[in-house]
Automatic annotation (TrEMBL):
Coiled coil: none annotated. Residues 59-293 form the ABC transporter domain. It comes from Acetobacter vaccinii. The chain holds residues 303 to 602 of 602 of the full protein. This is ABC transporter ATP-binding protein/permease. It comes from the Bacteria. It is found in: Cell membrane.
Length: 300
């Protein structure tokens, strides 16, 4: 797929739909080799794809069970609701099923039992194009096009003006970096241009998502540690993109989700604990232990 990006770049905006599909696929956490095994029903429901500001979506997982293969169940009876404009965080040890939840929301796979609903509609009954237009993903690692940095941001919304692009870049804390480059927004990036650091690429992804203005935001926090300054800039940028927006965060650092409306602690595909940060600390279970461990790591 990566080899396709170069040629596709020459085909212009006519193909932006195809490229959206490619990038969204690739966004979803290294799923490029996986077949998309879902299809639209004969008469799919049309979802509202209006911009998010006044229409944040409601997300619900209702008794969801899922396995990538029939012989290995990964999620067991997972239920939660993200109310419009609220933020839910998912934490848990590696392999607990966190990313699987984001893949099911994007409908890369269909659930085995239960249902995923957006605004009350089972997503299997919705047009996939609408669903994917409604959801914006800030992935752990963004692949950039071999094009200018301005183009890479504008890609979030092809009709954006240069002023829109700049405003998104400011909110994403990447504008000053871009203007410090000799060619500014016209700087070539990607394989054949300037290589950006992980933190810079993530801010480009955030700027792109600010432009897309999706009704649901999925943030997949980077596992790798960033330096404190970069971390702070990214957190500021993420705050800008998630404010008043329905947000699902897959979190690795608990310090970034203390303000979440709801936190789900996943353990072997089940929701083991849930509540606010304060609730979970008071519970004194797995979350409280994770919090204590991270606090002592950071202290060290
Ligand atoms: P991490 O924090 O390490 O990213 P996670 O909680 O996001 O972990 P998932 O990626 O959701 O975990 O994976 C849950 C389980 O599903 C794991 O046991 C994993 O091996 C399995 N799994 C993930 N993707 C696939 C796949 N494409 N095919 C088969 N099994 C998979």
């Amino acid at each position: 797929l990566l080899q396709l990006y170069g040629p596709l770049n020459f085909l212009g905006s006519v193909y932006s739909g195809i490229r959206t599909a490619l990038v969204d696929l690739e966004h979803m956490l290294g799923l490029v080799d996986e077949p998309v095994e879902v299809s639209d029903t004969a008469e799919p429901v049309a979802l509202t794809t209006r911009l998010s500001a006044s229409h944040p979506a409601r997300v619900e997982f209702r008794n969801v069970g899922f396995g990538y293969r029939p012989d290995r169940q990964i999620l067991h009876d997972v239920s939660f609701v993200v109310e419009p404009g609220h933020k839910t965080a998912i934490v848990g040890s590696t392999g607990a099923g966190k990313s699987t939840i984001s893949r099911l929301l994007f409908r890369f796979y269909d659930v085995t039992s239960g249902a995923v609903l957006l605004d009350g509609h089972d997503i299997r009954d919705c047009r996939q194009a609408d669903l994917r237009a409604a959801i914006g993903v800030v992935p752990q690692d963004t692949v950039l096009f071999n094009d200018t940095i301005g183009y890479n941001i504008a890609y979030g919304r092809m009709d954006a003006t240069p002023e829109d692009v700049e405003q998104a870049a400011r909110l994403a804390q990447i504008h000053d970096f871009i203007t410090s480059l000799p060619e500014g927004y016209d700087t070539q990036v990607g394989e054949r241009g300037l290589k950006l650091s992980g933190g810079e690429k993530q801010r480009v992804a955030i700027a792109r998502t600010i432009l897309k203005d999706p009704r649901v935001l999925v943030l997949d926090e980077a596992t790798s540690a960033l330096d404190t300054h970069t971390e702070k800039e990214i957190q500021t940028a993420l705050k800008a993109v998630s404010a008043r927006r329905t947000t699902l965060v897959i979190a690795h650092r608990l310090s970034t989700i203390v303000d979440a409306d709801d936190i789900l602690v996943m353990k072997q595909g089940r929701v083991a604990e849930r509540g606010t940060h304060a609730d979970l600390l008071a519970l004194g279970g797995q979350y409280a232990a994770m919090w204590a461990a991270q606090a002592s790591d950071e202290g060290a």
